[in-house]
């Protein structure tokens, strides 16, 4: 083999070295890189499908909760007769960390009117979205006033069952 290599002209050696380098890169691409790229694309498609399935399940669960509405014994689906909205509000406000900013809670019809003082706007909006999406409640009125500090607001909210 060494004799054969030594017998080649310098130009032929360069051509063979370049060809082997190209062949090596092609083998690396076909055996390593391309399968990884294809697997990544497949995982992205799977994540998108699972996300769509999750969204559909959340919407369906909300519809099921709405349709279940009242159980046979007259209690609401949460098991708290007549106070389910207030209970949901209090528990979820505690979980969201905004219960301390809640100045007043007043039952109104089937829902509740809430007053907040010095609450972070982003946190309040996330919590209201969660009430609508996960708890099946409806924010029917919302009044927000800017606070003294940036990002802080005072708000009055009317929350009702759907």
Task: State the gist of this model.
By secondary structure, the chain is an alpha+beta fold. 56% of the residues lie in helices and 23% in strands. A hairpin with a 2-residue loop joins strand 1 and strand 2.
Structure description:
By secondary structure, the protein is of the alpha+beta class. 56% of the residues lie in helices and 23% in strands. It is built from four helices and four strands; from the N terminus they run αααββαββ. A four-stranded antiparallel beta sheet has the order 1-2-4-3, covered by helices on one side. The longest helix is centred in the N-terminal third of the chain and has 59 residues, at 10-68. The chain starts with a helix and ends with a strand. Mean pLDDT is 86; it is low at 70-83.
Provide a count of the helices.
Answer: 4
Rg of Cα set: 32 Å
Strand order of the largest sheet: 1-2-4-3
Which class do the helix and strand fractions yield?
A: alpha+beta
Quaternary organisation:
single chain
Distance between the termini: 84 Å
Largest sheet: 4 strands, antiparallel
Strand content: 15-25%
Instruction: Please give the number of β-strands.
Output: 4
- Average residue pLDDT: 86
Describe the global form.
Answer: elongated
Order of helices and strands: HHHEEHEE
Q: Considering DSSP H and I runs of 4 or more, what fraction of the residues is helical?
A: 55-70%
Uncertain spans? 70-83
Throw out a few tags for this protein.
single chain, 162 residues, alpha+beta, four-stranded antiparallel sheet, 4 helices, 4 strands, 56% helix
């Amino acid at each position: 083999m060494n004799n054969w290599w030594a017998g080649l002209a310098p130009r032929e050696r360069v051509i063979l070295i370049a060809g082997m380098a190209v062949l090596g890169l092609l083998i690396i691409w076909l055996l390593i890189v391309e399968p990884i790229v294809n697997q990544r694309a497949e995982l992205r498609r799977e994540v998108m499908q699972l996300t769509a399935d999750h969204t559909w399940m959340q919407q369906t669960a909300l519809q099921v909760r709405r349709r279940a509405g009242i159980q046979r014994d007259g209690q609401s689906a949460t098991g708290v007769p007549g106070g389910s909205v207030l209970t949901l509000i209090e528990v979820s406000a505690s979980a969201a960390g905004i219960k301390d900013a809640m100045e007043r809670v007043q039952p109104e019809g089937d829902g509740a009117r809430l007053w907040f003082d010095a609450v972070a706007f982003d946190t309040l909006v996330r919590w209201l979205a969660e009430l609508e999406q996960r708890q099946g409640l409806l924010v029917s009125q919302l009044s927000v006033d800017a606070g003294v500090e940036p990002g802080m607001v005072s708000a009055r909210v009317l929350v009702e069952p759907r």
